From TrEMBL:
The keyword NADP applies. L-homoserine binds at residue 224. PROSITE patterns: HOMOSER_DHGENASE. NADPH binds at residue 140. NADP(+) binds at residues 10-15. Belongs to the homoserine dehydrogenase family. It catalyses: L-homoserine + NADP(+) = L-aspartate 4-semialdehyde + NADPH + H(+). This is Homoserine dehydrogenase.
Amino acid sequence: MKNIPLLLMGCGGVGRQLLQHIVSCRSLHAQQGVHLRVIGVCDSKSLVFASDVITRELNDQTLYEVCRVKSNGSSLSALGDLGECIVYGNSESKRKVMDIAALLGKATGLAFVDCSASSETIGVLNQVVDMGCCVVLANKKPLTSIMEDYDKLVSYPRRIRHESTVGAGLPVIASLNRLLSSGDPVHRIIGSLSGTLGYVMSEVEDGKPLSEVVKAAKNLGFTEPDPRDDLSGMDVARKALILARLLGRRINLDNIKIESLYPDEMGPDAMSVEEFLASGIVSLDNDVQERVKKALLNGNVLRYVCVIEGSSRCEVGIQELPKDSPLGRLRGSDNVLEIYSRCYNKQPLVIQGAGAGNDTTAAGVLADILDIQDLFPSKE
């Protein structure tokens, strides 16, 4: 039996869904000879961990209680008496996390699973990789920090997995790694990597005003509470940076050309969400509709995409694309990625499917954890 100790950082939607997946897959994993031993869970304020991280774990009842408390918006510090568990407050939690990493990293191994959306985890991750720990990421920020941080994280490539940072559960990173390791150079990537912006662009293609589409997307739960977080293109830029660095580009976020769908004068510092939705975005309708009409006259459609090409081009924004291309046929909130290489030159390798959602993202994280099981010792 492979026994994989893991510590989860981040108990938001993805983190809670991951814990539920782990519990629901117990019998399946037992058949596969794997046991995922959750020894600790932390949020931004607290850490709960097993009283003896060498031999014990947070049992399934405790994991469900963690999910319940966090789904109510409370901190882990609100957990009551959980028996064989200890809860640390914010002032001591980081030190204790490092103690656990030092104890287990070189001995049994330990998987740090980052399902947060915070840059605060970067310092911890940079230290634990040198302690023999594995790192599994859904959080994009550690991979889109400065090159020094990135180099540290990927310095042990066998011990890091981050499939869910780009396309939720889609096999984007794995496919690129297979091409690159086989000596098939990738010279162009173009893709729609935001389910929100994919939905928005396909709806305005049907003649609907941008303002109405964004409001509808917000009501459907497709956008962040402030839709400008999606419309800024920054999330797509982070995904593009991860892909570009995977191809060997030594660039940072400020090297990427980013087209925002709203001007600076409509940014969060200038107007509230309510003002933006009530009056700001309405003033953008005509310009977007004109761009849609122009594209249609050329036999094309508009898509919000990332483009990585050659040795220098890396940008995200609206592009005119042929209607009959994989990206042109895209409807709804799916992600689509076209990869061009020596072997996939005229006809690209196309990866398409659900690229967002807590369930899909958590499933991708779980698959990444299982993918590193050979790095952990077997237990009789």
